[in-house]
Hints:
The chain has 19 helices and 37 strands. The chain is of the alpha+beta class. It has a seven-stranded mixed β-sheet, sandwiched between helices. Strands 4, 6, 7, 14, 15 and 16 form a six-stranded mixed β-sheet that branches. Strands 5-8-11-12-13 form a five-stranded mixed β-sheet.
Amino acid sequence: MKVVYNWLKEFVDAKASAAELGTRLSLCGVAIDSVEETAAGPVLDAEITSNRPDCLGHYGIAREVATIYRLPLKPVQPKLKETAEKAAEAARIDIEAPELCGRFTARVMRGVKVQPSPDWLRQRLEAIGQNSINNVVDITNYVMFELGHPLHAYDLDKLNDRRIVVRKSKAGEKIRTLDGAERTLGKDMCVIADGNGNRAIGIGGVMGGAETEISFSTRNILIECAWFDPIAVRRTSKALGLRTEASYRFERGANPETAELASRRTAELIQQVAGGEILSGVIDVYPRPEPSRKIKFTRKELLRVMGADIPDRDIEDILSALGFRPVRVDGNRGASGALVAEWECQQPSWRRDVTRGIDLVEEVARHYGYEKFPPRLPPAKQPAHALPHAEAMERIIERLVGLGYREIVAIPIVDSKLDALFRPESVTPAVIGNPLAEDASTMRSNGIVSMASALEWNLNHGQRNLQLFEVGRTYELHNGEPKETPVLTIGATGLAREKTIWEAAREYSFADLKGDLDRIGELAGGFSWLNASVDWLAASRSAIVHLLRDTYFSADERPIVATSGSHLGVAGQVSRRIADEFKLRQAAFVAELRLEPVLEAIDKRSADLRFKPLPRYPAVERDFSLILPDGVTFAQVGQTIRALQIAEVESVEAADLFRGGQIPAGKFSLMIRVTFQSAQVTLTEAQVSEFSGRIVKALQEKLGAVLRAS
């Protein structure tokens, strides 16, 4: 928000310069980004947090300045020259939707002269980025930026029956707003209508309608100053794609008690710049005023949170200046016998965000000065405990870093359309009911969408060679209840190895991804890889990953999963369709694994680890050159050999792969290397031959393998 320095000084007699004032405001929580010179004098650019709607007007900022310098805040006391005729006799207000509009005030003026605004008014509005329209409309904007409460002026002669009805909109209802656009309203939006409520003349809390706007021919006006429900305004503004200064303030919770004061101030200023008569009184429909609450502030809480004391006078001065009206009501005596200092405070209507004692501690501390509190660490009340599977998680991260991957942290709120690219039909997404933006409307149902976005961002910024991983969570609705799943996501693209004087450059491939994941799998006892059918992965470079201990072969020799839920995830190359969606101009590889089964397997394996002495007897290697039908995987070969339960089999590795030549069509040649070793004796040739014969026979019977001639 832009704050005009000279405008601010109309409410508080601060002697500090604009630059010094900006520094002091920043130190107490109202961040001032810059100070610039304009025709209206210095202007401070303030960044107002969403919980401080009271600071969205110059008067609210002036209250902060008055508290900082312990100066009196000048009250706003409009003086009106009213006629004998009452406003209630000239117009009527009905609220049919009190849940959407909690208060509606209206004043009536006659005989105004609409014309260009005077220089002082135009310059101040232009200094804060507002275009001047005419003196009446400019005054409504001026008061909004002064007191922080939006207003609107209607041409009274254009209101049917001179009556306003606040109601819910009908689905498909249309209205032409002040920006000239015709908008179609959804159901149950807050609408300002006239007459019998048939014609919509404004969208409550967002923008007025063009049919009743103030023009240079306007003579009689109705000044609206109302309060609209923040959630309803935000939903309407979001649905219509219409953000205004009014909706910005109502969304954050404007003060309903300011409505009548802002209405008076507006009428006073319009009379000054446009003349006219103000009809007596105000039409004020206020169905359910919200009562103020009492909040207790204790020195005990201050000491607990801040670790240091503040003098009583400073506490009372700060709370009084901020409008909390503290009254000393000391509590019982503490352990030392001294009275526990307490103050009972009244919550002001403009600070609905302050509801607890801890909130008052923050208010006092920021205005007393955080720099005055000595730095201290709070005493530890209990020892720290490691999270479940913390050690296993550390081992995974250490291994990934050792393999050359870099960790990223992504925001789990993503674009619903992008999330749907990777989301199975069986998963119900967790959609945010009131999203901040269209591209941040869904809690991600998978980690791949975040990883693909990270690859895209880095590639667009000139980083071609990437190996990234993220430890995060995915979200979905399961039987209507939210469910979170910890996942490990990996993404890579570009070179796996850069060119050196000794080695040529090599592109990252699916083999690299599989190899790196297998290194992770070693910690958990190994992964098994099965053919995948995932539409967002390349068909020839994708796989489903399982824990090795959960996979075995069925009677027809197909690998199946022994334990339900042991499906860890998928890995592979991003398909061309998805790569085009994310504008990935080079091959990208991704993987996502559920973490809990992996972590449990790592912990179990760690608990079962025993010391194994170095072998005293030599190992024997045997190579088997096999001709296998297409479709048979190395995983099946390994599983078939392990199923024989030959204790002396130490390892099974793929040594060579060949297609074509003298190999028949539909088949391929695979050479495997089996290492035999015994911990008790030196293996004889007869024993190794017997083991080899059993292996060849099993491969022939179960996989249709043929031993290739030497």
